[in-house]
Amino acid sequence: MTNDDVPIGRRVARWRVRRSMTQQMLADRLRRSKSWVDKVERGVRSLDRYSVIQELAHVLRVDPEVLLGQQPSTPAGPPDGVDDIRAALARYDTPQAPAQPPEELRREVGYAWLTYQHAHYRQLVRLLPGLLDAAQAARSPELLVQAYRITSSLLVKLGEADLAWLAADRAMTTAADNPILAATATISVGQALRAQDRNHLALTALLPAANRVLQPAIRSGDQEACVSFGDQTARKPLDHGGQGEGRGVGGVLLVQAALAAAGCGEHRRADELIDRAAGIAAQIRGYDDQHRTSFGPIAVEVARVLVAALRGDVAEAVRRHVTVVRREAWRRLPAEYRGAYLVDAARAYLQVGDLRGAARALVDADSVAPAEVRCRPLVRTVIADVARAQPAPAGVARLATLVGLTR
Questions:
Q1: How does pLDDT run across 140-186, given as a tens digit for each residue?
Q2: Are the C-beta atoms of 281 and 300 separated by less than 8 Å?
Q3: What's the pTM value of the predicted model, to 2 decimals?
Q4: Which residue ranges run through the membrane (predicted)?
Q5: What's the rounded Cα separation, in Å, for the pair 132 and 321?
Q6: How many Å apart are CA 322 and CA 313, to the nearest integer?
Q7: pLDDT (0 to 100) of residue 407
């Protein structure tokens, strides 16, 4: 049995014995009855208030996280080091970085992607200035675009939307006339604009990019079915590299466009774009996700939940959410992706007044990707809204304390 599987009452008993206390001694220090302590230790009485857990931890001289069976806490608040990223983006001359073999730099970029997808944001903040310098010195458009995209995605998380847009714009400039690189850079542009609530501008950027990457495959003698995208018509999607590469990038552009459309009130268009993204996902039969889009049928289903919530149909959003998180494919999504989505699900639960549902989603998000909950300024508001309940759910009360909120 792992530490996480041990009931909290048994942990209390273990630490009481380690501190050479009897049940009566612990009860006296807590100003409670011996019967209360006995019931807690046997699991007859549940500990569902964080304030009580804090009191027990204080008497037993342990961290509350130890009694809760949590791993060492991820520090709360935005990580230090954003100014170093800002300085790296402000350098227009070629940095005096040591030359690196292309394969070594490619491994570093891949490691940075994995760090992001595992939501290790503090570690990534430290990595990015050096990675940006190395990628600029290498003069590899592909690797530099990826470095800018990672930077932009992280900055969106940290509430630095303007700086995220700058990194995304740099990615667009670097991509030049490479259609796939330009399309992946547009994903970052759209996300940065949406983070600034500029959904109309995001839609204006995302939809044409989707149309371009899903353009007709011009092959002499082929009879290709037409599919419609927005107000334009294109022929059968072109892979631009095979094995679903172009389709995956085009599909995530459609998903982002749908979210932008929903964000600016174009609900019918959002539904149409999601349906088209679903059609693209159905065509993909396994491909190397080298552009880190995480696109596929489950990503489309996640987006349907978010679109439903954005158009105000929260009951449908909650119903779809319950189904999505039970699917096997859900567990294969990156931790960052799942954590961010669960925060959005918590906001949907709040809209229908389901504080318990919101609390479960936040606690699940913290379990999957702690930094997603503890490092993002946006999430503090969600935690505060849920923590206002009296009594606040134990898990959310703990999160409120960790991020420095008072109830």
A1: 999 999 999 999 999 999 999 999 999 999 999 999 989 999 999 99
A2: yes
A3: 0.76
A4: none
A5: 37
A6: 15
A7: 44
Nearest C-alpha neighbor of 383 from the set 353, 368, 354, 363: 363
The answer to whether the beta carbons of residues 392 and 383 sit under 8 Å apart is no
Q: What residue ranges do the domains of the chain occupy?
A: 3-68, 80-176
Residue 185 near residue 150, CB atoms below 8 Å: no
Written as one string, the DSSP assignment of 185-244 is HHHHHHHHHHHTT-HHHHHHHHHHHHHHHT-B---TT----EEEETTEEEESBP-SSSTT
Cis before 72 (ω within 30): no
Identify the CA nearest to 107 among candidates 138, 85, 82. 138
Orientation angle between helical segments 8-18 and 34-42, nearest 10 degrees: 120
pLDDT tens digits for range 214-227: 875 333 333 333 33
Tracing tokens 């936040």 back to the chain, one arrives at 362
CATH number of 3-68: 1.10.260.40
* Helical spans, DSSP H, in 79-140: 82-90, 102-117, 121-138
